[in-house]
């Protein structure tokens, strides 16, 4: 198995934020939003939480897909949040998306605060993702949904190179390098299942959902 090589936990320089925002996330984000809506069903009027929101592209897409969804979107990177504010304002969604600077490992909200808790591509940034996953699960309201997706570390360099070529081959070199580093820093699906097992959540909720992503889906009982 390819060893995990960590990358910086927080992407917090202007260049990193601009490069991330400029990458073409439309297809991946669109699939994420569609899958969240399938897993959770129609929004029921409670707030949703997006953990590691980056530049808020997923909350914006969710608001466009569901007219009654409201979100708190959090990140630890100041420059990401600065671009997120601009994106939210430009989308005309400041009344439905609130941005907070919060560490995913210590989310400052009461238990069961959110109808749904979402996260896309934050786990591979965190050296020990267990506290962040525990916090996300803690915040899901009864009957609510936890939906976490991230990259899966490939088994070998040949597979990693193939994925970079397939999904970032037309991107600038910096973007290709970012994707390569992210794949190398990601968890393998069995590692994710071990974490979920330690939290007392069903490991069957973790599965590979593409050739490069795993997804965790869990519904808190009423």
UniProtKB/TrEMBL annotation:
Residues 49-148 form the Methyltransferase type domain. It is an enzyme of class 2 (transferase). CDD domains: AdoMet_MTases (cd02440). InterPro entries: Methyltransf_11, SAM-dependent_MTases_sf. Its EC number is 2.1.1.164. GO terms for molecular function: demethylrebeccamycin--D-glucose O-methyltransferase activity; S-adenosylmethionine-dependent methyltransferase activity. GO terms for biological process: methylation. The keyword Methyltransferase applies. Keywords: Methyltransferase, Transferase. This is Demethylrebeccamycin-D-glucose O-methyltransferase. It comes from Tautonia plasticadhaerens. The lineage of its organism: Bacteria, Pseudomonadati, Planctomycetota, Planctomycetia, Isosphaerales.
